[in-house]
Amino acid sequence: MVSFGKAFISTILFVGGSFFIPGLAGAGDTSVQAPFNVGEVIERVSHHPRMEVNRVVIRDKTREVGFEERTPASSGEILLDTTVVYVPAEGRQWFPAVAFDGVNYLVVWEDGRNGWNGLDIYGTRVSRDGRILDEAGIVISASLGNQQTPSVAFDGTNFLVVWMDLRTLREIYAARVSPDGAVLDPDGIVISSTSCELWQPSVTFGGTNYLVVWSSNMSCIYGSRVSPDGAVLDPNGITIAPGANDPSVSFDGTNYFVVWSDYRGGTFPDIYGSRVSQGGVVLDTTGIAISTRVNRVEEETSVAFDGTNYLVTWKDGRNSTYDIYAARISRGGVVLDSNGIAVSTAAYDQFEPSIAFDGNNYFLAWEDHRSGPNRDIYGSRVTPGGAVLDTSGIPISTAANHQWNPALVFDGANYMVVWWDNRSGTDVYGADLTP
């Protein structure tokens, strides 16, 4: 028996390689071809013949997509028809991010099931053993205009999801999501709203407050602290770096560390960073030069902390192709690897690195072109001392077509790596990876 206390079926999330209903069908069950168009699903409900049922129309933002049959509230529970099939959501699902709450992951992404002028932010909880807990997805923000490029962190009680929002201007919004999947701020929290265009948000939790950072079309990095109850502590923003974009942020127990692509040297971006105190004070006002190769592109940053030092990683154009490089930075802001650490260099391009730390080593994941024009997801471990343990890279996903934009988190036992995947549309996939 399954309660319909939270039932709402619209176009359906698909994450993984088969169609099933967790709890009703075993992992070995054969997939069933959907008898209707992808993205349009009808949930058929069987019921006890003595129960009265009502038909409830199911709608998304733009159209009627099906129906469910639901018992009156007084009659309690109903039986689900086991012929229900979940299919990939219509449109594109891409740019995922992931955080862990101690029990489950929250994976969030930009969702195009409502069309290009209705991009939304969706999410789902995923258990440690890979079960999708919210098969239809959690609607985190479906306001007018587009909501794009989310980032997510956990504060010990709730998640904070941040994104770029075009409901009026190009602004930065956020919403808290509880561990049981409830969206606590359905209208969103305005983090920053100015006449400038804002994008590329990133978020981390700093023990007391979050720090949200973002870029503007004025080529500046800004930030704002947000309390766990959703209060924006710096409504006018903190100016962290002029002439910069593409920020990432981490926390070392005392200060935040923000890294970015910096254009102060001219046309080609370099990698800089700055520490920011928990009180919102920028400690390195001119920035820390992490990698400044002359006339070479260095961009697409990610950063993590290992208890002693940070490891910053980026896409690096110093060779004939784009490679993955990294450098360690001390808590005091000293760059320990002035020439960088070559994590992955080869006769093919590599892009968009993402990083996490597991208590012993870092793991870096990236987009990789070694298979030809299609991109795959590869990774490598790097020790706190800067040694690369997997010099040829570990293949994480080499499926057909493209796999893009990996993001990852460590759960205390394994990593969860997520990415957007073109093997059969544009969907969000994930994989567990042991340390």
Strands ordered across the widest β-sheet: 5-6-7-8
CATH fold label of the largest domain: Neuraminidase
* Helical proportion, percent range: under 10%
Shape: globular
Kindly give the count of domains: 2
Detailed description of the structure:
- The chain contains no helices and 31 strands.
- The chain has strands at 45-46, 54-59, 64-70, 79-80, 93-100, 104-111, 120-127, 138-141, 147-154, 159-165, 171-177, 189-192, 198-205, 210-216, 220-226, 238-242, 244-251, 255-262, 270-277, 288-291, 298-305, 309-316, 323-330, 341-344, 350-357, 362-368, 376-382, 394-397, 403-410, 415-421, 427-433.
- The chain has 2 domains: 1-90, no CATH class; 93-433, 6 Propeller (Neuraminidase), CATH 2.120.10.10.
- The two termini are 39 Å apart.
- It is an all-beta fold.
- Residues 1-81 have low confidence and may be disordered.
- The strands form 9 sheets. It has a 4-stranded antiparallel sheet with strand order 5-6-7-8, with no helix packed on it. It has a 4-stranded antiparallel sheet with strand order 9-10-11-12, with no helix packed on it. It has a 4-stranded antiparallel sheet with strand order 13-14-15-16, with no helix packed on it.
- The radius of gyration is 22 Å and the shape is globular.
Topology:
Blueprint: E1 45-46, E2 54-59, E3 64-70, E4 79-80, E5 93-100, E6 104-111, E7 120-127, E8 138-141, E9 147-154, E10 159-165, E11 171-177, E12 189-192, E13 198-205, E14 210-216, E15 220-226, E16 238-242, E17 244-251, E18 255-262, E19 270-277, E20 288-291, E21 298-305, E22 309-316, E23 323-330, E24 341-344, E25 350-357, E26 362-368, E27 376-382, E28 394-397, E29 403-410, E30 415-421, E31 427-433
Antiparallel strand pairs: 1-4, 2-3, 5-6, 6-7, 7-8, 9-10, 10-11, 11-12, 13-14, 14-15, 15-16, 17-18, 18-19, 19-20, 21-22, 22-23, 23-24, 25-26, 26-27, 27-28, 29-30, 30-31
